[in-house]
Amino acid sequence: MSDTEQGHPPARPALQDYERDPGDKPPFVLTFAEVKLLGIAGVGFFLDAYDLFIINPVSTMLQYRLYGGKSLPNNLQGLLKAAANIGSVIGQFLFGYFADALGRKALYGKELMLIIFATIMCISCPTNDLSPDNCLIWLTVFRIILGIGVGGDYPMSASVTSDRAVIRKRGTLLAYIFANQGWGSFMGSLATIIVLACYKHVMNDEGETSKVDGVWRIVIGLSLIPAFGTLYQRLTLPEAERYKRAKNDTLVETDEVKDFKDGVKVSSLNEPEEEVHVDIQRKAHFREFLEYFSEWRHAKILIGTCTCWFLLDIAFYGINLNQNVVLQQIGYAGTTGTPWEKLFKVSTGNIIITALGFVPGYYVSVLTIEKLGRKVIQFQGFLMTALFLGILAGKFTSLNNASFIVCFALLQFFFNFGANTTTYCYPAEVFPTKYRATAHGMSAACGKAGAIISALVFNTLTSSIGTPAVLWIFFGCSLVGACFTLLLPEVAGRDPDAILAEEIREKRLQQRH
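Now predict its structure.
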């Protein structure tokens, strides 16, 4: 006799270790299988932050190697800083769509291969053979390719994790993965300090400033270690059972939908027991995606995730890609001393900024995301960042160093215990499995569009209207972001696949009547 005939619920096929959860421990206490999954998926965000934020000290080093200590040409500097984000937009759209169409397994690991290739090409830049401007163009081209890989990791890792996560712990797992962004920034700053310290004798004592050429190559090249370390695991990760179910027309009947681990309870409908065909084709055609989001109840959620991420990244990247303004205010601008002393001081300032606000904010999100919920964290995060941006803008010239550091650290804290974390989690949790990667890729691409705008216009705007006025613009972005957060539902305990099946069942009942 089958399980169903004996009165038992149908067995879930090939239940994976990640999904076996007795529910007797807090969400932030992970099993070995979950830790292993985080190690595989989290390295992408470590590299994302490492590569994106390392460009600040590297661009300073290139001033000494290529331009004799003078500033990089404004247009090329802006393009160099924006290059990885430009690539990210492409990667997020492409990998997001094809992860739904072809499957996570078909693509996972390919984005890491792109990152590895681009990193190797960046550190192979022939500075002795090319003109200074052409060297920057070389780096820009391969940082765009790097960005495609980094961007592809957003929807891929979010989907791979969300597909496997127990719903009770889904937000926590996603927040843990995103927290690697803080560690990437921290390790990038630490690596710069350590490598510079190793070069102190030759650069500072012997005065061979051109040896900085080796420093920036080593600092960028170190990111290859975690990339190679997890490449094999990504390429061999099996397809998640939840994704297989979404693609195989086997989401059946109300009772089986209820059987989803910790799924939301669907209403019982008086209809005969029959298989609910979810009309899923073998490939997620874009037409089907458009049809789903043509309904306002779905479209408003996508508008919310895209707009919130866009507004957040205008402010977040505007500040973090241009930390020289902040470093000047806290006394770590590196404007005096030998070239080595200047570089070392800027790197020290960067690690102070990262340690103060970056890492703590991520882990407060990890600990509280299932208790407070995503909507509360995002809403209060936007309001608190608006508050501290307003203080910085209004008192920019009158704050002393200690006050500025405290205010800036709290700003960074509420970026990360706030919208920077939840804008990543929301699209991975609120959309059904069959549309998840595409919607996440679109949302993330909107975020990177905001980052590109900041990278390209921040310096120009600052010189024309002043830094306080730019901070007021960021203040406005945060307030508008809080308003758009109201479009989003709370997703704690919400199973989007069960909700999709229920919507399809309701439509069928309406068609019958």
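The two ends are 37 Å apart (CA to CA).
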